[in-house]
Design brief:
The chain is an alpha/beta fold. The protein has 2 domains: about 240 residues, Phosphoglycerate mutase-like (Rossmann fold, 3-Layer(aba) Sandwich), CATH 3.40.50; about 70 residues, no CATH class. Helices cover about 40% and strands about 15% of the residues. The strands form 2 sheets. Strands 1, 4, 5, 6, 7, 8, 9, 10 and 11 form a 9-stranded mixed beta sheet that branches. Helix 5 crosses helix 6, helix 6 packs across helix 7 and helix 8 crosses helix 9. The radius of gyration is 20 Å and the shape is globular. Keywords: Disulfide bond, Glycoprotein, Hydrolase, Signal.
Length: about 350
C-alpha cells in the first residue's frame, strides 16, 4: 500500500505572536504522534526526496514546523553530527507575505477583500451581528477598544483564551461572557470561507496542490515523494476543511492536524481524510468523508467533487472584479498558529 500524505497542523499559542513553551511542547508531541503513526512508511532519517515541509512566513509557524520535525526525525549514530545533540536539521521552505500563493494568500489576492466586504450583505450574517451587537459593545468597552465591532470581540476572546490556557486569572466580565464570545469566535472562522468564492480564492490553491500531488503520485511522476507538510494557521485549517465540506464549525484547537492520505489497492487509488483535533493527542483522529463520496474516496471522484473550489487560473480570478462563472473545477500536514 502506498500513501501520499498531506497534513494541516495547527499548533500552540503565542505571546506577541511568538510560540510559547506550551506551544513548543504541543508541536513536539505532535511530531512524536506523527512518527508513531507513519513509522515504517517514512524513513527515520531525513530524505529530501521523500518529504517536503512548507510554512507561512511567521516566526510561530516556522518554529512549529521545526518542533514537529525535531520529534519526527531523531538521528542515529550515522547521521548524528554531535554526540551530545539528539537532533538533525530539516529544511523548512517559506515565502514572504505578498508572495505566498499557497498558505497565506490574502495579500497576494486583491479580490479576497472585495469578497469579504460582501459578507455583511448576507441576511444570515446580518442577523448574527444584530443578535450580538450588545455583546460586541460590552466586550469592546471592557477591553478598551475605541470602536465596537465583532473583530474587537474576537481579538479580546483570543487573549482571554490564551490566559485561560495558562491558568491565569481572567476578569469576571470575561468569565460571564466567555461562552458567548466563543460562539462569535467559531462563527468568525466560518466566515473565512463562507461563500463558494472565498473557498476558491482562499482554499483553492492548497487543495489544487494537494490534488495535483496525489494525481502525479498515482501516475508514477513522484516516485520517491511520500509526504508534504504544511505549517500554517487555525484559519488555514478551517478554510481547508470547509472547502472540502467537512468542517464542524468549531475553531480548530491548538496542534490540530488534517491528514489527507493517498492509498493504493492494486491499480486503484483512494483518498482518506483524518482530523486530529485533540490537543492532548489522546483520542484517535476523526475520519472525515467529503459530501458525495465514501470515506475511502476514489481519487478520480475526489478530484471531480472538489472541482468547484479549485480555480483553473487563481491569479486571474484574484484580479477579476466579478466572479468567474462556469469554471472547470477540480499527505498534507498543516500546523496552525493563532
Amino acid at each position: 500500500m502506498t500513501q501520499m500524505l498531506t497534513f494541516h497542523l495547527k499548533y500552540g499559542q503565542k505571546v506577541s505572536e511568538q510560540l510559547t513553551k506550551i506551544g513548543k511542547n504541543m508541536t513536539y508531541q505532535l511530531g512524536l504522534f506523527l512518527r508513531d503513526r507513519y513509522d515504517g512508511f517514512i524513513k527515520n532519517v531525513f530524505d529530501t526526496e521523500e518529504i517536503q515541509v512548507i510554512s507561512t512566513d511567521y516566526d510561530r509557524t516556522l518554529m512549529s514546523a521545526e518542533c514537529v520535525m525535531a520529534a519526527f526525525y531523531r538521528p542515529d549514530d550515522e547521521t548524528k553530527f554531535r554526540k551530545d545533540l539528539e537532533w538533525v536539521p530539516t529544511p523548512i521552505h517559506t515565502a514572504p507575505e505578498g508572495d505566498d500563493v499557497l498558505l497565506n494568500v490574502d495579500a497576494a489576492c486583491p479580490r479576497i477583500s472585495s469578497e469579504v466586504s460582501k459578507l455583511d450583505q448576507i441576511p444570515e450574517i446580518q442577523d448574527f451581528n444584530e443578535k450580538n451587537e450588545e455583546l460586541y459593545k460590552f466586550v469592546s468597552e471592557q477591553a478598551g477598544f475605541n470602536e465596537t465591532s465583532s473583530l474587537s470581540a474576537l481579538i479580546t476572546f483570543d487573549a482571554i483564551y490564551i490566559e485561560r490556557l495558562y491558568n491565569l486569572t481572567i476578569p469576571k466580565w470575561a468569565v460571564k461572557t466567555y461562552n458567548e464570545m466563543n460562539i462569535v469566535s467559531n462563527f468568525f472562522f466560518e466566515l473565512l470561507s463562507y461563500t463558494d468564492e472565498l473557498k476558491r480564492l482562499r482554499g483553492g490553491p492548497l487543495l489544487k496542490m494537494i490534488t495535483e500531488n496525489m494525481t502525479n503520485k498515482s501516475r508514477g511522476e513522484l516516485p520517491k515523494r511520500k509526504m508534504n507538510v504544511y505549517s500554517a494557521h487555525d484559519s488555514t485549517v478551517s478554510i481547508i476543511l470547509n472547502s472540502m465540506g467537512v468542517y464542524n464549525s468549531i475553531r480548530p484547537p491548538y496542534s490540530s492536524t488534517v491528514m489527507i492520505e493517498l492509498h493504493q489497492i492494486g491499480k486503484d487509488y483512494f483518498v482518506k481524510i483524518y482530523y486530529q483535533n485533540d490537543t492532548n493527542l489522546v483520542n484517535s483522529p476523526h475520519e472525515l468523508t467529503i459530501p458525495g463520496c465514501s470515506f475511502e474516496c476514489p481519487l478520480q471522484d475526489w478530484t471531480e467533487l472538489l472541482n468547484d473550489v479549485i480555480p483553473n487560473d487563481w491569479e486571474k480570478e484574484c484580479h477579476d472584479i466579478e466572479p468567474l462563472q462556469n469554471q472547470s473545477k477540480y499527505l498534507m500536514l498543516m500546523i496552525r498558529n493563532g
